[in-house]
Fold this protein.
Amino acid sequence: MNTKNKAGLTPLELADADAAEVLRKHGAQSAVKLGALSDDAANGNLEAVKQHLKAGSDVNGKDNLGRTPLYRAAYNGHKEIVVLLLENKADTSARDANGWSPMHGSAYKGHVEIIAALITAKAEVNAKDTDGDTPLDWAKNKQKVAELLRKNGAKTGADLKAAGK
């Protein structure tokens, strides 16, 4: 059941969502557990994410770009998955290779409810990426996101630099 094909994929990776659920119930494992969790989080597949977490997938594992499932769910606007990952101890401060956190991605995409969930989970509103930009910098033209961030103490990277931080 867990045999890999020439491309290194197991039946679980090749199955559609319904078949994958049946395979998981019978012990099928992904050749890349993290990749599957991360992809399902990015694609908004709540039931699959629940199955991955139940099977012990690493909630804080990173893909080849350094992005966590939380980052990918937050960036793509999947609030229920974000909340589920946070309930399962997803790291709100995890950064990808560019220093982008889930807060940065959510701010950039304008996902107000996800920003609120991340703030409730104590995510850093002034996290700086490798360019020194904060989520507030990324919230350009996203008025509701910018207002929520400011209400919670967010500053721009330039403001933090001017303050010596």
